[in-house]
Amino acid sequence: MHWLTGYFQRRKSRPQREADLALQRIRFGMLNTLDAHCDKPPIRLDAAIQRADDIMALWHLRQDLMNAISASKGEVVAQAAMATVSELFRGHIPSMKR
User: Fold this and answer.
1) Cβ contacts of residue 82 below 8 Å, gap of 6+?
2) Which one is predicted more confidently, 92 or 71?
3) Where in the chain are the domains?
4) CA–CA gap between residue 18 and residue 42 (Å, rounded)
5) CA distance 75 to 77
6) Tens-place pLDDT, residues 40-57
7) Which among 42, 78, 87, 95 is placed 20 to 30 Å from 32, CA to CA?
8) Model pLDDT for residues 65-84, shown as the tens digit of each residue
9) What angle do CA 61, 67, 69 make, to 5 degrees?
10) CB-CB contact of 45 with 34 (8 Å)
């Protein structure tokens, strides 16, 4: 069945492939930020980020990420980290124009 997955992956339109790549890039950035700034990353938040199936779901998890970092490293560090994470969404969220 592996070949079938590859077939459907190739059949996706270019915009869909780009959206999938953006989703993965944002997810990876959020998980890296969580790991880098939390001594013991919350398991539920980690799982929620990994399970998010679209960019808007990740967008709504930013507050939870901010709270986790703030609890671990403080508000100033959390704000700086979230500025970087928020930049990942530029061009993918209607309220964040390019």
Assistant:
1) 62, 65, 66, 69
2) 71
3) 18-88
4) 29
5) 6
6) 999 999 999 999 999 999
7) 95
8) 999 999 999 999 999 999 99
9) 105
10) yes
